[in-house]
Specification:
2 domains, single chain, 371 residues, alpha/beta, 34% helix, 18% strand
């Protein structure tokens, strides 16, 4: 009798596995997930060495997980279940008050951070016009919104130590102090790790004043607003009931010529990308290695700015075309050539290095700044 009671459960389980297997076989292969905003695993190359090392099996498990039929729906169901259980975090994202999401950072890579600051010091010793700033993460200015017992590290003392270490070898841009003087609720997106376009403009004006330049006023710019923006934090946690952000940025009052890694582009942002999940990816067409923004009318001796950055500056960089004839934008993660040749070929009036703390402490490509 006990065995007979097991049969229905076993048949139900077998039926589910059979249906899921058949559905997986006929389900079209997806290369990109709009919901998760990432590339999906599609294949696992087979070799005997990969088989015996276990690499093939591990990769194949990732492919199966990424291509599982109804993956988006299962993720949504998991998120709804976790919300019902009153969880305060998921997949490295903390659930803050008022619908805000924050990245979890309870430790950092001090060894890598020290290396990167060392590379920056070497770079600054070869150039006398370098301005450097570190952008703290969003939770720094929203501590009262974090769940109890979150264990987040305090980035501000670490940033202060870096400033002291660099000393007079570099022109320091106090991004942390600038943000601390603002209304914290309007600085960063609720669903994304980036600062808002309006905050990027504040940083631009402060940098201009520090470099002795006249910033372009908001009266001359057009404020663009794009609704239904779900950013990187939401893509990781899928918290049920999360309200979307409004993506904001300032558009230029003049046309600029744009090349990204040598390819010509029509404008400094991609309007088509604004209709997709990863709306922030519209700015500068993502994170190209070398992006050049040029005023269409060039004087005999053009002025040039070099901006070495992560994605935080993608909405900020175009504003500098109001002050320079050419803005060279380098993302070291995508620029394997190194900067020595570029700096030798081009005369830069100013060099700005601007990084978010989390990118600076984890970036293993920063050595390219001195190559």
């Amino acid at each position: 009798m006990k065995k007979r009671r097991i049969y229905p459960t076993a048949l139900l389980l077998f039926g589910f596995i059979a249906v899921a297997t058949i559905a997986d076989l006929v389900n079209p292969v997806r290369t990109f997930s709009e919901m998760e905003n990432r590339e999906l695993k599609t294949t696992s190359r087979f070799t005997m060495s990969r088989l015996f090392s276990g690499e093939f099996q591990s990769r194949y498990e990732e492919v199966v997980a990424d291509q599982f039929v109804g993956r988006d729906e299962w993720i949504t169901l998991k998120s709804m279940t976790e919300s019902a259980l009153l969880k305060t975090e998921n997949n490295g994202i903390l659930y803050g008050k008022n619908g805000a999401l924050f990245g979890k950072l309870t430790s950092y890579n001090k060894e890598q951070l020290d290396k990167n600051i060392g590379f920056l010091g070497q770079f600054a010793s070869a150039h006398d016009n370098v301005t450097f700033g570190i952008i703290p993460s969003s939770y720094t200015y929203s501590l009262d919104q974090l769940p109890v017992g979150n264990g987040q590290i305090d980035q501000l003392p670490i940033i202060a130590d870096i400033q002291q270490t660099l000393g007079d070898s570099i022109e320091w841009f106090d991004a942390a102090g600038l943000l601390a003087a603002q209304d914290s609720e309007s600085l960063y997106y609720n669903t994304d790790h980036h600062w808002r376009g309006t905050t990027a403009y504040l940083a631009y004006t402060a940098l201009c004043e520090q470099m002795g330049l006249e910033p372009i006023s908001t009266d001359q710019l057009t404020l663009r607003e794009v609704e239904d923006f779900y950013g990187s934090y939401f893509s990781k946690c899928k918290k049920a009931g999360t309200e979307p952000d409004t993506l904001t940025f300032y558009d230029l009052p003049f046309e600029v010529d744009v090349t990204v890694d040598g390819a010509e582009k029509d404008g400094w942002y991609d309007p088509a990308q604004l209709d997709k999940r990863d709306k922030y990816g519209a700015f500068l067409y993502g994170n190209g290695g070398l992006t050049i923004l040029s005023r269409q009318e060039q004087p005999e001796k053009p002025s040039n700015l070099l901006l070495i950055k992560d994605s935080f500056s993608n909405a900020l960089a175009p504003l500098f075309t109001a002050n320079f004839d050419n803005v060279y934008i380098v993302d070291l993660r995508s620029y394997p050539a190194g900067l020595t040749a570029l700096c030798e070929q081009t005369d830069f009036e100013n060099i700005v290095v601007l990084y978010n703390f989390e990118n600076l402490e984890s970036d293993t490509n920063f050595y390219r700044i001195v190559q």
